[in-house]
Every structure is written in C-alpha cells, then in structure tokens.
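Project standup — Tuesday

K.O.: blocked on the structure for the chain from last sprint. Re-posting the sequence here as requested.
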Amino acid sequence: DLYSVAVDSGVLRRLTDDLYDDRDPTWSPDGSRLAFSSDRGSGGARGQRNLFVLERSNGTVRRLTAGVHNDVQPAWSPDGQSLAFAMDGSLWRMRVANGRADGVAEELLREKEYLSSPEWSPDGRYLAYTADDDGKSINVRIVNLATGGVTAVSTGAFVSIEPAWSPDGRR
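H.V.: unblocked you, prediction finished:
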C-alpha cells in the first residue's frame, strides 16, 4: 500500500488499501496526483506492472498503461504534462492530461544496456537515467530530449544509481 505523511503534524494517511503491490510513487509537481506502478490488473498475476495515477482530492485510481510489459519508475515532467518511465529496459514518455493518458506512449531511448531510473531536468529539456551493463557497471547518462544526443555522466566499472538534478539543473 501507499501512504503519505504530513511533515508538520506527522499524521500518516493511507492512500491505497488493497492486496496489490504498489511501488515507485511520485507526486505531480502541483501535488494533486500521485503516479505509481502496480501489479493490479490481469497481468499482475504474471508479475507484470503498469502505471496508475491516484487523484489526491478523491482517491480515484486511473490506469495509464496496460499490457504485458513492466512499466515502472514513473517521473513527472516539471510542467506536470508528461511522465517518463522505464519499460523492460528502455525509456518511454507519455503525455498525461488531468491524470489521464493523452495518446500513445513514445519510446525515447533503447540501448544495449538496461535503462532505468529516469529523472527530468528542472527545465524539462533533459532526462538523466541509469544504464546497467548486466551488473558489470551501472552508469548515469543524460539524453537531450530535443536532439536525442546522449552524454555519459559516469563511466567505468562503477555502480551509480538514482540520478538527481540540482535545483538549478546545472548538476
């Protein structure tokens, strides 16, 4: 289940209350919606995960993706209009309007490594992510969303995970 905690009071609030395995929660920039991955639905029994959005105002859960893939690690764009996510080792983007999928998901990037952990730059022009070379190394890379150009942030036999941008987007 997913929970939230009020920072000022410490009050714990349960957001989902079911038997599903809900993971990867991320609040929209305006705090009105929570995107997450879950095994709810027909594919869950086979270990497949899809993306969902929970409306903070009324607790309604809407499915964003469906299918036999593993859609995980959603990340909101700074303007709250798109979600980037990992699907079976590649990176995807989906437009989301008012908590509903607005069209078809678009594959952003596929490489020989397993790609995951997408993170938008504060200006929405870049996406940082990890590239896992079958456990030999996990490195951080950045893709320019306008050009598709990729820049390696880390290289070598290291394990670099969970990329995060500085507030000004320069690091």
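K.O.: great, moving the ticket to review. The chain is about 0% helix and 45% strand. The CA atoms of residues 1 and 17 lie 6 Å apart.
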